[in-house]
């Protein structure tokens, strides 16, 4: 820990909040910290651990009416990127962990995801519907460099000519350019790159282990130059932190080849409100009250907003100003560009073909 500000470096969350599903909770007491100091021991090694889990399914039906996707899949649970605002933090509580530091340091790895995906695509009742990779946690987070699960899943999508979309803020997606180009040739891929700010200082504070802004813009350019359709997520927009950057961000991503932009307002549901409040009071104390007040103003006076249709866009004067800026950005930079629809027509024929081997006999699937 930093002695100056008592800040855990390289992490977003600065504490482990209590898991609402567990009776017991873990607390780091001052007397323990003092003992470690006197003994010359490290109280918290701040290491990331990878834990293999064995889910029975990998494709999830999304029932929320305002999310904008029908099906998602997540090769990893938890995310080492450490974005302080991440809505996925709450999902870590279902696995028995904290939405705070545990979310960033205990990464659950689903090595059987490619097999489960193939089983799903071969099931009798499945018809082609776009599956979004990383609907919850980033499929190109640092764990992917070791486990390569996302790449193996993309190989399955290509094998069966099935449409897939990706959401990421990691430039590591460039490793899979070969597969992305093949998927693009059949109209099967859409990529969403999240860029929250043009400021590296802001990025390091909000998203400590993500790719730099420069690398993300370069990724948008590389994908676009290879005709891979890219939408940029200016998300989330946080009043008094990055809300002033909407127009310059839109201009920059357009110049790098993005076809469209999308946005969401920050919302601090569940445990995230406590995590974010603790974080901003420690890292941006001069701005803390202003930011928290303006976030609440966008959500009916509360940091927590679960109302469908409003929770992602916000309401009130500040939200209205942000909506107007997004409208101006789209009209100025994206009026003449269209984001292509994915191809759902190839899958059934390809699946039928894959069910038969070279001897004309059906496979075990």
TrEMBL record:
Q: Which SMART domains match?
A: Elp3 (SM00729)
Q: Which SUPFAM superfamilies match?
A: Radical SAM enzymes
The molecular function terms of the Gene Ontology recorded here are: iron-sulfur cluster binding; lyase activity; metal ion binding
**Alphabetical list of PROSITE patterns matching this protein:** RADICAL_SAM (PS51918)
User: In this protein, which residues make up the domain named Radical SAM core?
Assistant: 65-302
**Sorted UniProt keywords:** Iron, Iron-sulfur, Lyase, Metal-binding
Note the superkingdom of the native organism: Bacteria
Q: Which residues form a coiled coil?
A: none
| UniProt-listed Pfam families | Radical_SAM
The yes or no answer to whether the keyword Iron-sulfur is present is yes
Record carries keyword Metal-binding: yes
Xref: PANTHER family: SLR0285 PROTEIN (PTHR43432)
NCBIfam families noted in UniProt:
rSAM_PA0069
Q: What is this protein called?
A: DNA repair photolyase
Q: Which organism is it from?
A: Galbibacter orientalis DSM 19592
Record lineage: Bacteria, Pseudomonadati, Bacteroidota, Flavobacteriia, Flavobacteriales
